[in-house]
Specification:
Blueprint: H1 10-18, H2 25-41, E1 48-53, E2 56-62, H3 65-68, H4 75-83, E3 93-98, H5 102-110, E4 115-120, H6 122-125, H7 133-138, E5 150-152, H8 159-163
Helix pairs in contact: 1-2
GO molecular function: tRNA-specific adenosine-34 deaminase activity
Protein name: Nucleoside deaminase
Keywords: Hydrolase, Metal-binding, Zinc
């Protein structure tokens, strides 16, 4: 199981992946989940994102809403902030623990991100209160067709292992 292989630092784990030549989408996503789970175990919200361009990791980030007291500090936005220091992000790929919310999806589209690979969709997250469907509905933003490829990959852990048994806001 994913949790049994978890090192102390999510950053170390992500750095170890960059040593592998040509990681697969699944490997990048699994590292994103490790980072999200580590952050959750440290008391943060259970979300992480990696931003990769041309096979190179430009940024790894976690959701910092609780720590910063800032509702815009989502993992995808944190990764965009960090990666934008390296130049254009056009065609880059984002790996996210969950389906992007409307705010994050808009920022990803505006920055030319080529695709998003994620583990858990809104239906998976809903039982734990981490569902952004109502935001999409209120904004009248249909996801069909999606504004960029949004690709759900299989997760090696169940949603409850990442989202469950934790108070959230």
């Amino acid at each position: 199981m994913l949790q049994a292989h978890l090192p102390q630092s999510g950053t170390r784990l992500v750095n170890s992946l960059t040593a592998i030549s040509d990681p697969t989408h699944q490997e990048w996503l699994e590292q994103t989940l490790h980072l999200a789970l580590t952050h959750r175990q440290q008391g943060g919200r259970p979300f992480a994102a990696l931003l990769v361009k041309e096979g190179k990791l430009l940024a790894s980030a976690v959701n910092r809403m609780l720590e910063a007291g800032d509702p815009t500090r989502h993992a995808e936005l944190e990764a965009l902030r960090e990666a934008s220091q390296h130049g254009s992000l056009k065609g880059a790929v984002v790996y996210a623990s969950g389906h992007p919310c409307p705010m994050c999806l808009c920022a990803l589209v505006m920055n030319g991100i080529g695709a998003v690979y994620y583990a858990f969709d809104n239906q998976d997250a809903a039982p734990f209160g981490f569902d952004s469907t109502s935001s999409y509905d209120k904004l009248r933003l249909p996801l069909s067709p999606p504004p960029l490829p949004l690709i759900k990959l299989p997760s090696p852990l169940p949603a409850a292992a990442l989202y469950g048994a934790q108070p959230h806001e």
